[in-house]
Design a protein that fits this description.
The protein has five helices and 13 strands. By secondary structure, the protein is an alpha+beta fold. The chain folds into two domains: 183 residues, Nucleoside Triphosphate Pyrophosphohydrolase (Alpha-Beta Complex); 57 residues, Winged helix-like DNA-binding domain superfamily/Winged helix DNA-binding domain (Arc Repressor Mutant, subunit A).
Length: 267
Amino acid sequence: MEYNSEKEFLKAYNPDDYKRLSMTTDILLFSVSDMEQENYRKTNEKSMSILLVKRKTYPFKDKWCVPGGFLKIDEELEDCPKRILKEETNLTDIYMEQLYTFGSVKRDPRMRIVSTAYMALVDKNKLKERISANSAWFNIKADSTKNTVVLTLSSNTEEIVIKAKKELIDKTSGKNRYIIEENSGLAFDHAETILVGLERLRNKIEYTDIVFNLMPKTFTLGELQKVYEVILGKTLLIPAFRRIIAEKVEKTDQIQGGGRSQTIVTL
């Protein structure tokens, strides 16, 4: 039907003539923290973790997922993940950035739902709030080859194993698609969401300062290198790493004692 004006169109418009979908947002909250270290002379080993929430309702009742929820009809998209993170985990003032939009037709059994995922980073030691009772930090271990990845998420009481086939879909950017072959405990398509988030984080620390959202106010270069290594999953040469990082940090007058002394730096 043809309309002669915007006013005429709006008068005739019937929203029921259009199929609807729902919009959600999901938040991948990553942290890197110290593991227990018996030898005080060594730089503390680091582990990477992600905050998951156990679902209380169907679908996927009692399964783990990343924090997420529906966008309100009168809510700005950028405000939604902040609200949801507060409601589901009790955390506020967390750095986050938009990651990717997931829109597979069958990603949710209830209805057609498109989700805009956000990647959030925090130093767990700086958190002032206590996380909610149905939330838990899961340590991340990733083993990958050219075509496969095995992701193990482990808390104090549970372990989730994800196995995925990795397919290169864009040679220019190196972007991959993940086909989930095994998933022992994550709801929805959140196994794929986490894999995409890890890939984005690894790529971004190579050319941005995003990693500093995982660091305390002051730290040693050795501690910073450990954070890079645990995210990238590989050992870095000390001289090369320090040349790359030299202009991003500033020396302080403080020295870390115990064993081999190290200068403490700040941003």
